[in-house]
Design goal:
With 96 residues, the protein is of the alpha+beta class. The protein contains 3 helices and 6 strands. Helices cover 23% and strands 36% of the residues.
Length: 96
């Protein structure tokens, strides 16, 4: 897997914004990615030093769609919580 196919998008929620105070950033990653691939991708893409990577999988929700109210599932998501070295920051989240 290509290094830049690993990270899909940053996750910007109220909870992930609070984690930034502790130098942690949350990204949605490819389902087949592992911690080493995520570490390498973040370090190469943003020129920062990663000290830790925590991964979690969230199962898609069952929702009802359409007039017939038929059930369907939203896709499963894999997230990575990346801890950076003190002093480093990712500018996407900082607004610069």
């Amino acid at each position: 897997m290509n290094v830049f196919q690993v990270v899909r998008r940053p996750v910007v929620t109220e909870k992930s914004t609070l984690l930034q105070e502790r130098n942690k950033y949350v990204f949605e990653v490819s389902p087949g990615a592992n911690k080493a691939q995520v570490r390498e991708a973040i370090e190469r893409a943003f020129d920062v030093k990663v000290t830790a990577v925590n991964m979690l999988k969230t199962r898609g929700e069952t929702r009802r769609f359409g007039r017939s109210n038929r059930p369907a599932r939203t896709p499963d998501i894999k997230k990575a919580i990346v801890t950076l070295k003190p002093g480093d920051a990712i500018p996407i989240f900082e607004g610069t």
